[in-house]
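Annual report, structural modelling task.

Input specification for the FE2/S2 (inorganic) cluster complex:
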Amino acid sequence: MSDQAVGDPELRSARWYGKLDRDGFIHRSWMKSDGYPDDLFGGRPMIGICSSWSDLTPCNSHLDDLAEHVKRGVWEAGGVPLVFPAMSLGETQLLPTAMLFRNLMSMAVEESIRGNPIDGVVLLGGCDKNTPAQLMGAASVDLPTIVLSGGPKLSGQYRGERIGSGTDVWRFSESVRAGEMSAADFMAAEACMSRSKGFCNTMGTASTMACLVEAMGITLPQNGAIPAVDSRRAVLAHLTGRRIVDLVREDLRPSQILTETAFANAVRVCAAIGGSTNAVVHLLAIAGRLGVPFTLADWDRLGKGVPLLVNLMPAGDHLMEDFYYAGGVPAVMQELGDLIDTEAPTVSGASVAEQVAHSERFGSDVIHTVADPLQDEAGIAVLHGNLAPDGAIIKPVAATAALLQHTGRAVVFESIEDFKARIDDPDLEVDADAILVLKGCGPQGYPGMPEVGNMPLPRKLLERGITDMVRISDARMSGTAYGTVILQVSPESAAGGPLALVRNGDVISLDVAGRSVHLDVSDDELEERRTAWQPPPVEQERGYARLYVDHVQQANLGADFDFLLGSSGSEVKRESH
Ligand code: FES
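The model returned the following structure:
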């Protein structure tokens, strides 16, 4: 009996379904319980639809509907669609932070793709961590892949005002603390902010990642901005289903799309759209899986000279819905001209140049021109200095310009609990020139590097009308947040970085133009403090959290696990029975 007797031996799935032996019987027979006829196992590409649908990830709760549209396209193109779950990370529900589980989800995605009889995969995701987790996992297998994002929510509407996911949470919350908004009004805004299914409607991390995967060519055009409930999102899903079948036949893989050039294009688009600082850690992690030489320094180098073109919250005024109507990512890439490498390939089969050639920009206030930008320099700045030897980042377009060069005395919080206990203490010694320093919120220390870097300001300063202060931590911040916030200080305090040595009253100097953050304490004094410093005890005794703290790398390397770097390919050597 032949063991490769039916189907197209070129297809990976023939490894499962092409055999006429006992193994082939087992693989086919159990699938036939779902009503699949014999000929579906005879050489049609098997397309996995890796869905991060979950009722507990409200931003992704419509992905089951969207998967049906992908299936239509796959059937139509001659493939067989097979939806499978991966973990789903709900940014607003998961504790202690969804970021703790990004690497776990990437492992689930990687092994699910590799272990199953699929020839290509559609990564169906949304909400901040799902897109990077899925792409990290898929990159380590390197089967033909297309990303399809769930799309943003419709714009929020509150008492005649358009409000944005996240961004207005931070604004309203500070208004309540300043005594300018009632608790009842604050609660009334909740439903007004989330009017439809979809991910955050601001240029937060989900929107940023949806736009950047489009900029990198691993999605079809307009993936970034079409609203979740717009029928054109369903059309995009249908087209994605059609295209992934062709991608399998062409054997076009992520490693051919996600090249150094694609990452460079993504950094520049991230600047032009005012994208989230979280993109830094996610793109570094994805590059690490592909072996692409792409570092934290590249974020600064490549983002230099890129203007802010897109007027979206939190850096501007509008919302994702408006961005789509104004032309979306293709219009931005066309406007960026020579700053984009338009020869880069995309999963559509066209180059970036061909893909954006017919894009149009509608109106003038949402997508600006290079000749008339919102700001001249929009790249994420990478800072170094004795406080952050391996780097820290700041998003200047979301900061207060006057604070980008600033010297102040540190007001230090040893943990998030310490911060919450003391920030509103009337006796806290703090003024508007002080610099708030938060420790213990890095990848190992929290663990999981939560979005707490945009620390709320002391109530007594809010009441005096202060709206921004310099803040420094080893945490991240929500992509929807704003302020003069230095993030992802590496090495983190729990790993013995200099951040751990800062004391109340120390003078810190920030010079974003000079790319420096400096602790004005002598080397001798720092050495003395280091000798006295004790690492915090590791509280995670077992399970995934222990694996995480033992293996997570620092933020400047993407916070991936050390043992997940690189790719293992798609081959599985042994049978299951
Ligand atoms: Fe899900 Fe913002 S909370 S995208």
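The first helix runs from residue 14 to 17.
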